[in-house]
Amino acid sequence: MKLINCVVIVLLVFLSACNQNTQQNIDLSGEWKFQIDSLDVGIAEHWYNLDLSETVQLPGSMVENGKGNPVGPNTHWVGNQRNMEWFEDENYKPFLSDEEYLFPYWLIPDKHYYGAAWYQKTVDIPSDWKEQNIELYLERCHWETQVWVDGQKVGLQNSLGTAHQYDLTKYLSPGKHKISVCVDNRIKDLDVGPDSHSVSDHTQSNWNGIVGEIKLVKRAKLSISNLQVFPDIANKKVRVEIELKDIAETKGETIIRVEAVSAGNEEEVRVNPVEMKIENRSGKIVIDYPMGDAVRLWDEFDPNLYKLTVEVQSGSAKDEQEVHFGMREIKADGTRFAVNGRPVFLRGTLECAIFPRTGYPPTDVESWKRIITICRAHGLNHIRFHSWCPPEAAFTAADELGFYYQVECSSWANSTSRLGDGLPVDKWLYEESVRMIKAYGNHPSFCLMAYGNEPAGKNQKQFLADFVTLWKTKDSRRVYTGGAGWPAIEQNDYHNLPQPRIQAWGEGLRSIINAQPPRNDYDWQNRLGKNDRPVVSHEIGQWCVYPNLKESEKYDGVLKAKNFELFRRSLNAHQMGHLADSFLLASGKLQALCYKADIEAALRTPGFGGFQLLDLHDFPGQGTALVGVLDPFWEEKGYITPEEYSRFCNETVPLARLPKRIFKSNETISAEIEVAHFGPKELAGVTPHWKIADQLGTVVREGNLATTNLNWGNGIKLGFVETTIPTEKAKQFTLEVEIAGFINSWDIWVYPSEQPKLQEEILVVQELNKKAITTLKNGGKVLLTARIGSVKNGKGGEVGIGFSSIFWNTAWTGGQKPHTLGILCDPNHPALADFPTEFHSNWQWWDAMSHSNAINVEVFSNPVQPILRVIDDWVTNRQLALIFEAKVGKGKLMVTGIDLVDNLKNRPEAQQLLYSLENYMTGEKFNPLTQLSENEIREIFE
Fold first, then answer.
1. How does DSSP assign 517-551, residue by residue?
2. Rounded to whole angstroms, what are the CA distances from 269 to 258, 261, 292, 296, 320?
3. pLDDT tens digit sequence for 311-350
4. Residue 297 pLDDT more than 90?
5. Where are the beta strands (DSSP E) in 358-494?
6. Domains observed in the chain
7. DSSP secondary structure string, 290-319?
8. Cis-peptide into 615, omega within 30 deg
9. What's the per-residue H, E or C state across 5-20?
C-alpha cells in the first residue's frame, strides 16, 4: 500500500511539472485587492507600493462588487440631459423626495462611481517562464488603465474597444510579484463625447472595472505579434501578412509554415500547407497562400469558416498562432452592396451597449449567438454598433452564424467634442481604429466601419475624408463610411443618411405618415439624390410604445428601472393603473404598424442599400426611448411575434403599392404587386398568389399573377390586383400575397357607397350653441363634434395628436409632436358597430387622428368612461378621450374631439364614423350614465 501511495505521489508531481512546463497562461480571475481613489491621490501617494485594504472579484465591475457611492441628485453622470424642466413638472413633484431617487432619463445602477479605482493582485511566475516574453491581457477595461509591477510603472492604455495588453517581460521573473492596475472611467482631455454608447450612462452605464479574460500570457522570444488574412476569392487565395517580434535577435534560418483547414461542422477540407524559408529579417512577412479549387465562401446563408495556422521557427525559437477567417468579399456595386458578387440588402438594427443585468457587454459567445438568433428570427441580417466596438465574442458568434456588422470607433463627437480641430480625440480615433483592425480585422462578420456617430466640427469632412482614404488604402476587407448619419463625403464607400425614412427628426406632424392619407405606394428614390454608391438609411423607426410596467421585475442585475416606477406612480395618480397592460398592447400594435410602413418603404426602393433600425429592442436612455418591439433583454412584449415581424422584414418580402387603404364599395381596389428578393439564389418559375379575405378568414377574391423568374433586387414589379368588393355594410379586409413561400399582407377597408337612412335625425353641432342647449334641456340628443384647435390648453388642447406613435420620446425631442400613442377602445362598443375596428389604431383611424383634439376628461366633476380613448405620453399620463358620452340636463350628449363636419365629402372614414355614432345615438343603447353640467362642457372649448 505504501508503494502504491509513493507511486501516486511521484506521478502527481510529474504531472504537475508537466503542466507547469506546458502552461501558456496564468488566469488572473478571482479575488483582487481594491481601493477607491475618489480624491485622485493614488499615484502621488504611491498606492502601487501599498497593500490595498478591500477586495473585489474580477472579472467584474465596481457596482457588481457593491462598490461606489449611493445614487442621487449629485451623482456625476456621463451623458447629456435635455428638457430638464421635468424636475418642476407638477406631474412628477409628488414622487420626488430625498428618501428615494427616481430618475426618468436612463436606468440607474445600485451604486455609481466616477473616477480612479485601484486593483491589485500578487502573481507567482513559474520557473519555466524565465527569459520568456510575458504579456498582461485585460480583455475589456472601462476605461483608462495604468499598470505597475512591484512599484515600477509599465504604461497607460485607453482603448475602449480592444483588450489592454501590456508587455511585462522586463518586469517579471520567476517568483512572486505585485501587479497594480489603476482604472479611471472619467472623461478627461480625451473626450469621445459623453453620449457615446461606449462610455455613457444612457445605455451600458459608465462602469469602472475589468471584464472578460484577465490573464498573463507566455510568448516565445520569437513570436507572431500580428497575423492578418486577406481573402482573394477571385483568385482563390489569401494574402497572409505576418508580423514577427524579435526576429532580428534570432540566429539561424527562419522557417514559416502555413496551413488552412475548414472550421465548421461540415466535412473537413484541408488546404495543402505551404512551407518556406524566410530571408527577410525586418519582421514583416507576406505570403500568398492558395486555397485550392474547392473554396468555400462565407456569407449570411453559408457561413463557412477556415482556421489558418502559422508556425514560425528560427533556430530553437518557435511560435505558433491560429486565426479563423472567411473567404468573403464585400464591396459597393453601384448603389447596392455585393457579398461575393451576390447583391445584398442590409436589414439591420442598432446595438447601443444595452445590457441591464451587468451594465457592460457580454464577453461569451453564447450570449451573442442568442442576440443574433433573435435578430435573424425577425428577418434581420445586420447589426450596427452605434459609437462602440463589441468584444471578440460578438464577432465569433456572427462569424459562425453568418451576420453582418457595422462597427464604430467608440465615439459620438458631437455635443462636447468635435473632429478635425486638433483635439486629442483626433489622434485617438486613428489609434483606436488601428487597434480594432488588428484585433478583429480577420472576422468576416466585420463588414462595415465608420469613425462613429453623427460628428461635429468645422473640419470634420476633411478629417473623415483622410480617415476613410487611409483605411480604404490599408485594408480592403470591408467597406467604409466617415460617420453614421453624415457627412456624405466623396471618399465614402457608402453613406449612412437619415433622409430615407417616414419620420425625420424634428419633422413632427409634417411627415408622410402623419401628414398624408394612408398609402404605401411611395419609395425613397427622390430622397437618395444622385448618389452613385449604396445608401443605408440611418436610424429609421424610433417608434415608441407605452412602458411594460411589469418589466420592472426583470431588472435583477446592477441597473434598475426607477424610471418605470416613476411612470407607474404617475399612471396610478391619474386613476389609470388598471389600463397599463391595455396601453402597452394597443400602442404596441400601432408601433408595429409604423415599423412595417418604414421597412416596406425601404424594400420598395429600387437600388437601395439597406436600413438600420433604431431599434429592434428598447433604448433605455435619452429620456427613456421605448422604441423596440423587444425589451432591453431582447424578449418579446406580447403584441408581435418574430414570425409576424418577418413577414415584412426578410430576405424575400412580397410588397403591394396601394395608393390608398380606404375604399367605397363602388370603387376599384387597385394594388401593384412587387417583391424584394435577396435570398441565396435567384428563383425560376415563381407564380405569385394573392387573395382578399374578411376578418373571419373568408376569402372573397383571389387569383394568380403571371409566372416569372425572381431575380435579386428591390421593388421588382410582378403585376396588378384590380377588383371591386360590393358591400352594404362597412367591412375590414386583408390583402395577402404569397411568393415562393413568403407571405405579406395589408389591411384595407370598404365602406358602403350609400348609407341606410337613420331612424331619426341627430342634431350635429360644432359648439354648444343655443339650439344644442335647448335640445338637451328638452331631453333631446346632441352630437358635439369639435373643430381642430377648439379645445383649451389644460383641457387637452396642448396635446399634439397625430396618427403615428411618439417618435423617440417627448423628453429628448423637446416635446415633438405627436404626443400620443394611438387609440384604445372596445371594438364591440355599439357606438362603433358601423366602423369596424380592433382595440388599437389601424389605418382607418388616420383621418380621425389627423382631424382631432384630445379632451382631458379628468377635468370633469364625475368620472367619464371614454368610448374612444387616446393613449397619452407615459410622461404625463392624462386621461384623454376622443369620444365620450354624458347626460346634460335631461338630454343625452355625444362629444367627439374629432371634426366630423369639415370637408366631409372628401373624408370617407369621417363619413363612416359619423354614421356609426349617429346610428348608435338613434337606438336604445345610447344611454349615458355620467351626469355633466352645461358649463363643464362649455369650459372645455375656446
1. -S-----SGGGSTT--S-EEEEEEE-B-----GGG
2. 15, 6, 10, 9, 21
3. 998 887 889 999 999 999 999 999 999 999 999 999 999 9
4. yes
5. 382-385, 404-408, 446-450, 479-481
6. 23-219 (2.60.120.260), 234-325 (2.60.40.1940), 339-639 (3.20.20.80), 652-660+666-751 (2.60.40.10), 763-938 (no CATH)
7. E--SSPPBBSSS-B--EEEEEEEEETTEEE
8. yes
9. HHHHHHHHHHHHHHHH
CA distance 64 to 66: 6
**What DSSP designation does 412 have?**
-
Cβ count near 187 (within 10 Å): 19
Chain centroid, CA 651 distance in Å = 19
DSSP for residue 852: B
**For residue 737, what is its C-alpha cell?**
400575397
Q: What is the DSSP letter of 76?
A: -
Indicate the DSSP class of residue 845. G
3-state secondary structure at position 233: coil
| C-alpha–C-alpha distance, residues 521 and 171, integer Å | 69
Is the distance from CB of 108 to CB of 71 less than 8 angstroms? yes
Distance CA(574)–CA(857), nearest Å, equals 11
For 683, phi and psi rounded to 5 degrees? -120, 140
The x, y and z cell numbers of residue 267, run together, are 466535412
Cell of 898: 374629432
pTM recorded for the entire structure = 0.95
The residue to which cell 485550392 is assigned: 292
What distance in Å separates the CA atoms of residue 75 and residue 59, rounded to the nearest whole number?
25
Decide if pLDDT at 10 tops 80. no
Whole-angstrom Cα distance, residue 476 to residue 123?
42
How many angstroms separate the most distant Cα atoms in the chain?
A: 116
Residue 252 Cα to chain centre, angstroms: 55
Asked if residues 229 and 308 have their Cβ atoms less than 8 Å apart, the reply is yes
Say if CB 783 and CB 694 are below 8 A apart. no
Q: At what angle do helices 392-401 and 424-440 cross, to 10 degrees?
A: 50
Closest by CA to 66, choosing from 39, 34, 102, 101, is 34
Instruction: Tell me which of 92-101, 826-835, 873-882, 923-932 is least confident.
Output: 92-101
Cα 69 from Cα 110, distance rounded (Å): 9
Written as nine digits, the cell of 641 is: 411575434
At position 103, the amino acid (one-letter code) is F
The DSSP-derived string for 788-826 is: TT-BPTTTTTT----SSPPBS-TTTTTSPSP-EEEEEE-
C-alpha span between 716 and 306 (Å, rounded): 36
| CA distance linking residue 592 with residue 600, whole number of Å | 12
**Pairing mode of beta strands 342-344, 336-339:** antiparallel
